[in-house]
From TrEMBL:
The keyword Oxidoreductase applies. It is an enzyme of class 1 (oxidoreductase). This is Thiol peroxidase. Thiol-specific peroxidase that catalyzes the reduction of hydrogen peroxide and organic hydroperoxides to water and alcohols, respectively. Plays a role in cell protection against oxidative stress by detoxifying peroxides. InterPro entries: Redoxin, Thioredoxin-like_sf, Thioredoxin_domain, TPX, Tpx_Peroxidase_subfamily. The active site is a conserved redox-active cysteine residue, the peroxidatic cysteine (C(P)), which makes the nucleophilic attack on the peroxide substrate. The peroxide oxidizes the C(P)-SH to cysteine sulfenic acid (C(P)-SOH), which then reacts with another cysteine residue, the resolving cysteine (C(R)), to form a disulfide bridge. The disulfide is subsequently reduced by an appropriate electron donor to complete the catalytic cycle. In this atypical 2-Cys peroxiredoxin, C(R) is present in the same subunit to form an intramolecular disulfide. It comes from the Bacteria. It catalyses: a hydroperoxide + [thioredoxin]-dithiol = an alcohol + [thioredoxin]-disulfide + H2O. Keywords: Antioxidant, Disulfide bond, Oxidoreductase, Peroxidase, Redox-active center. CDD domains: PRX_Atyp2cys. Belongs to the peroxiredoxin family. Tpx subfamily. One of its GO terms (molecular function) is thioredoxin peroxidase activity.
């Protein structure tokens, strides 16, 4: 179990992020089309931008920023993951003109438990903790960050630097 904070209060997660050097768990997430077809693309690097809800300012800022960054990343797919319903994710991306990232919902999967990011207590209990996990083309973790305070954005520079 790991810990982050929200509004200055400690919040516990369901586990720890996958360790650097380990193979990340497989996942299947739901896209805005309501199909359970978002998986790790074979042979591509992946940035998992994980957050509580696209309806909050910090979360929506992270989706916007990773969308900007994704345009310049070779052989890399950025997947933005939350417990939001696929409708909300699709509507947000359409309204914002976001098309360089993949929006995906974990609402029908065990992603939160498998990746150790499900929040166990606090106001956001049941949502996902703000974190970033970067995978190489073979699905090995090359960077991970559980953001110490969910009131803050992730370290974008560190995530991009991990891609080399």
């Amino acid at each position: 179990m790991a810990m982050t904070s929200l509004g200055g209060y400690p919040v516990h997660t369901a586990g720890d992020l996958p360790a650097v050097g380990s193979t990340a768990p497989d996942f299947t997430l739901t896209g805005p089309n309501l199909k359970d077809d978002v998986t790790r693309p074979e042979g591509r690097r992946v940035v998992l931008n994980i957050f509580p809800s696209v309806e909050t300012g910090v979360c929506s800022a992270s989706v916007r920023r990773f969308n900007q960054l994704a345009a310049g990343l070779e052989n890399t797919t950025v997947i933005c993951v939350s417990q939001d319903l696929p409708f909300a994710l699709g509507n947000f991306c359409a309204a914002e003109g976001i098309d360089d990232v993949v929006a995906a919902s974990s609402f029908r999967s065990s992603f939160g438990e498998d990746y150790g990011v499900m929040l166990l207590d606090g106001a956001f209990r049941g949502l996902l903790a703000r974190s970033v996990i970067v995978l190489d083309g073979d699905g090995r973790v090359i960077h991970q960050e559980l953001v110490p305070s969910m009131d803050d954005e992730p370290d974008y520079d560190a995530a991009v630097a991990a891609l080399g």
